[in-house]
Amino acid sequence: MGFFVLEHAEWAVGPLFVWGGDMRQMDPVLKERLETLIASMGYELLGCECLSQGRQMVFRIYMDGKNAVTIDDCSRVSRQVSAMLDVEEVFQGRYFLEVSSPGINRPLFELEHYRRAIGRTVKIRLHALVNERRQFAGVLLRVEGEDIYLQVEGLMQEVRVPFSVIEKGHVVGEV
After folding, report:
1. Which positions ≥6 away from 99 have C-beta within 8 Å?
2. Are 73 and 43 in contact (CB under 8 A)?
3. Would you call 165 helix, strand, or coil by DSSP?
4. Which tens digits make up the pLDDT trace of 125-155?
5. What is the reported pTM?
6. What is the distance between the alpha carbons of residues 143 and 40, in angstroms, rounded to a whole number?
7. Quick one: what percent of the chain has pLDDT higher than 70?
8. CATH class of 107-171
9. H or E element: which one contains 78?
10. 140 touches 43 (CB < 8 A)
11. 37 phi-psi bin (left φ>0, alpha ψ -120 to 50, beta other)
12. pLDDT at residue 22 is higher than 70
């Protein structure tokens, strides 16, 4: 898995992003600019996370390519994204920029990512209860409209989960 970290200083969170958020909470203009920039380099922007880890702020970008993403690929994208973020003044204060390939536990950010994972085992964490639970692991059966359907081990019926209540999801890596 490719992975690259670039440290910045003297910027703080601007109005374009919500800390602790994912792509659904990102300003659509910033999202489009990141997608365009990364696509122009021959990669796909899978998703972003903005997290607080202790006193450190981390802006994490996941990207994919036609071939395996290397650390050189991540480094090249990181330099370009860093320059764009500086021009846009997205952050104030100290933050870390991380650019990474998705790895075997591929994160799922968009409904299209869930469609691509049909037939695979996924884990999801919810920000609202579904069937009195906030976490599910199971085989992703299908995506219909704004809902995903899972076959969860130990349950006789499939589980319908609205995409809007998913906080975080990823494919369970197969070793």
Report:
1. 2, 3, 4, 6, 60, 61, 63, 74, 75, 77, 78, 81
2. yes
3. helix
4. 999 999 999 999 999 999 999 999 999 988 8
5. 0.80
6. 29
7. 83
8. mainly beta
9. helix 71-88
10. no
11. alpha
12. no
Residue 100, both tokens: 């990474």
Helices (H) and strands (E) in the chain, counts: 3, 10
Sheet containing 56-65: give its strands across: 3-8, 95-100, 56-65, 43-53
Residue type for position 144? E
27 token code pair: 């300003």
User: Hey, what are 109's tokens?
Assistant: 């950010």
In the block, residue with structure tokens 């602790």: 20
Among all chains, which residue has been given the structure tokens 């975080």?
Answer: 168
Per-domain residue ranges for the chain?
A: 3-100, 107-171
Q: What does the block give as tokens for 105?
A: 């536990």
Out of 1.10.3720.10, 3.20.20.330, 3.40.190.150, 3.30.300.70, select the CATH number for domain 3-100: 3.30.300.70
Q: Would you list the DSSP string of 130-163?
A: ETTEEEEEEEEEEEETTEEEEEETT-SS-EEEEG
What would the two tokens of residue 67 be?
């071939």
